Each structure stands twice: as C-alpha cells, then as structure tokens.
C-alpha cells in the first residue's frame, strides 16, 4: 500500500509531539503590529459575510412557513453531509458507503462550505491524533473562542501534526469533489436553496436568505460546536485524560455529535450516542442507509471494552470520593501490645479487644444503641464473640465505626490479614491507587513486645 509522503516527516521518537515542538519553529506571535497580515482573509470573509447577510435578510425578508420547513430540511441535508460524510465516513472510516451514498454525501457536504473532504479530514485526523496539544489544529487548550472560530480566522502558528490521508487521495469521489469544489459550493449553498423555493412556492428571495445564508450560519456554528462546546460542556464517562465531553445540549446543537468523550475514545465507532434514547440522528441515518443497502460494515466497538472505559472512570470517581473520607489507622502503624499490658491499661481507660484489635470506646459508651452496660461489661476483656453475634450481630455501620476506634494490636491475638473480620466492610472493596498496586509493600515499623520498650496506646 502506498504511504503518504508526508509521513516521512514523522520520525520515530519517544514522544513525537514534544520532539516536533522542540525541532520546529512556530510563526511569530500575533501582535497589534502584524495582526492584519496574520488574518486568513478568505475565512474572515466567509465567517463575517454569512452572519451579516443573515441578519440583514431576516430584517427585510418575510419568512414563509414553506421556506422555513425547507430551510430546516436543508440544514439537516447539508449538516449530514458533514457529520455522516466528512466526519464518520471519510475522517474515521466508521462504515463503508456505496458510490451513490458517497456522491450524495460529498455533494451535501459541499453545501456546508467547510472545505473539501480531503482538507477537512486531514485536519480532523490531526485533531484526534494530537488532541489538546499545539499540533492539534483546533486545540481546546487555547480557549473556547479559539477552538470555535479563532483557528480559522488567524493563520496557524504551527503546521498541524502529521496525519495520513493516503486513502482519501486514492478515493475517486473525494478527488472529484476536490476538483469541482468551488462550483459545488456555489450550487449547493446558494443556487439550489434559491431555485427550489422559487419553483416550488414562488419565494426565491426567502430561499436565498433563509435556505442559503441563515441555514449556512447554523450549519457552520453547529459544526464548530464539535470543536468548542464538545470540549467544554459535560462530563467524561469514558476517559478524562483529554478535554472531550459528553452532553445532550451539544448533541442537540451538532446533529448528534455531542457525545464527544465516547467518540474520542472509540473514534471508529459509527455511533456517537450508544443509548437508544440519546439524540444522534447521524447514527440513525447511517443505520437506515445500511438497511437500504447503501452502506455496510458499520463498525461498533466491543461492548466489553466500552464498559471497561466506563468502569475505569466510575472507579476513579469512587477513588476521589474515598479520599475525602477518614479511614482507620493502618494496622502496621498501630503499637503491638501484650495481653498483660492490655489489662493494665484498660484499668485506666475503657479499652475493649475485638478481633485482635484494641479499641478505645470512651466516646461511645453513652452513645451505644444497646446501652452503656454492654460496653462497660467488656472493658478489659475479649468481646469478639459478643460483637460478631454472641450478643448481637452488628451491622456494617457498626463495623466501620468500631474500626475508627482502633488504638493498638494485641500481640498474637489474631492472624492479621487472614480473617475477613479484620477488614471493615467499607474497605473490603476499597479502590487502590496505581502506586499501591505496583509498588512493593512497605510496612511501617511498629513497636512490639520484643523491643526494649513496649508500645503505649496513644
């Protein structure tokens, strides 16, 4: 298979992004002195003329209901050319499309005036490969305004990172659209939306304004929201390493491209929304095309791996919540006390032995739901059997609270780490840090009866 020549510029280094940033020089910063010369005037013209014409047109052109319905339909028509065509078909190859559907999407996408398939897909592949770095053409780290429109108005300070588009260079539909792009955008953006209302219900001016400019304004900013709003609003149910987020509002604004955290994790999946009730008309459009025989090989990431991503984030959130709680002192940090020392010290303070741990229950005597008598009765004794059902089989809450009152470990009292009774219920499914899983076990040095001086209960 032929390799894109641009890939020759991608040396195999430990970190391509940092290597590129060190070895290539960016353009000079934009200042008030060079501001005008650093603007991309073609994009500036497109992105200012369209809203100006829309506002003026709305002020002076009456909106007929037929034209309104047509404009909404044409918004989805050209928008799907981007979402189902440019994005999911050509940029991510999430499904296969027959020639008819390819030409349909190439023509529809041209009506969105966002560049040719090849240009758009090259930038988008770079965006995924270098998300949130300086090699990302619409780096969200530069701010909401930059990722929305700024990157198009100002000449990029750096060339986007290397991305392979050799497959698109060989695609006859992509080459055809690239060759005839100027003619296609004129016909699909303004001629067709003017002619249809004119011939259909005699509203050429309404079609020109609402089906042309106003519709184009909405399509533009709908797509731009995928680069800005989808990296700012919502949550990260699959991975929070980068900025992409999931949110229904973004989905409503972008014809279903709002579940962006999922998309960045599983970019070759033809879906953005994985739940049936989530708004993703682009997914359903592709699904219908498959049923009609126009599309095939719809790619779906294995459900098992999707759930792993969700579970990873769920565990991470649990870990964060866990870190905010107070936990019992580690047994390795507690002093080891002999039975004789336990009896001696319990004569001076209310200490109770349960499951090999010595507990100071001074603050709980009057609060004990079963009455103070049972607490006082077992001071200086082993209350393990009583606590575990001999008198009352205590709840998880009681186990957790008891563990917080540990002040020592009885020497030889219980084989530590073996009996399940030693671990409070709240800690039995404790979420461990990566460091705890990978680092060798380091126990704290505790005093024992074999030391010159026995540990004292704090």
TrEMBL record:
<keyword id="KW-0408">Iron</keyword>
<keyword id="KW-0479">Metal-binding</keyword>
<dbReference type="GO" id="GO:0020037">
    <property type="term" value="F:heme binding"/>
</dbReference>
<comment type="similarity">
    <text>Belongs to the fatty acid desaturase type 1 family.</text>
</comment>
<dbReference type="InterPro" id="IPR015876">
    <property type="entry name" value="Acyl-CoA_DS"/>
</dbReference>
<dbReference type="GO" id="GO:0006636">
    <property type="term" value="P:unsaturated fatty acid biosynthetic process"/>
</dbReference>
<keyword id="KW-1133">Transmembrane helix</keyword>
<comment type="function">
    <text>Stearoyl-CoA desaturase that utilizes O(2) and electrons from reduced cytochrome b5 to introduce the first double bond into saturated fatty acyl-CoA substrates.</text>
</comment>
<dbReference type="Pfam" id="PF00173">
    <property type="entry name" value="Cyt-b5"/>
</dbReference>
<keyword id="KW-0812">Transmembrane</keyword>
<protein>
    <recommendedName>
        <fullName>Acyl-CoA desaturase</fullName>
        <ecNumber>1.14.19.1</ecNumber>
    </recommendedName>
</protein>
<keyword id="KW-0349">Heme</keyword>
<keyword id="KW-0472">Membrane</keyword>
<keyword id="KW-0560">Oxidoreductase</keyword>
<dbReference type="InterPro" id="IPR005804">
    <property type="entry name" value="FA_desaturase_dom"/>
</dbReference>
<dbReference type="InterPro" id="IPR036400">
    <property type="entry name" value="Cyt_B5-like_heme/steroid_sf"/>
</dbReference>
<keyword id="KW-0444">Lipid biosynthesis</keyword>
<dbReference type="GO" id="GO:0004768">
    <property type="term" value="F:stearoyl-CoA 9-desaturase activity"/>
</dbReference>
<keyword id="KW-0275">Fatty acid biosynthesis</keyword>
<keyword id="KW-0443">Lipid metabolism</keyword>
<dbReference type="InterPro" id="IPR001522">
    <property type="entry name" value="FADS-1_CS"/>
</dbReference>
<dbReference type="InterPro" id="IPR001199">
    <property type="entry name" value="Cyt_B5-like_heme/steroid-bd"/>
</dbReference>
<feature type="domain" description="Cytochrome b5 heme-binding">
    <location>
        <begin position="352"/>
        <end position="411"/>
    </location>
</feature>
<feature type="transmembrane region" description="Helical">
    <location>
        <begin position="101"/>
        <end position="120"/>
    </location>
</feature>
<feature type="transmembrane region" description="Helical">
    <location>
        <begin position="181"/>
        <end position="201"/>
    </location>
</feature>
<dbReference type="GO" id="GO:0005789">
    <property type="term" value="C:endoplasmic reticulum membrane"/>
</dbReference>
<dbReference type="InterPro" id="IPR018506">
    <property type="entry name" value="Cyt_B5_heme-BS"/>
</dbReference>
<keyword id="KW-0249">Electron transport</keyword>
<dbReference type="InterPro" id="IPR009160">
    <property type="entry name" value="Acyl-CoA_deSatase_haem/ster-bd"/>
</dbReference>
<feature type="transmembrane region" description="Helical">
    <location>
        <begin position="72"/>
        <end position="89"/>
    </location>
</feature>
<keyword id="KW-0276">Fatty acid metabolism</keyword>
<keyword id="KW-0813">Transport</keyword>
<dbReference type="GO" id="GO:0005506">
    <property type="term" value="F:iron ion binding"/>
</dbReference>
<feature type="transmembrane region" description="Helical">
    <location>
        <begin position="41"/>
        <end position="60"/>
    </location>
</feature>
<dbReference type="Pfam" id="PF00487">
    <property type="entry name" value="FA_desaturase"/>
</dbReference>
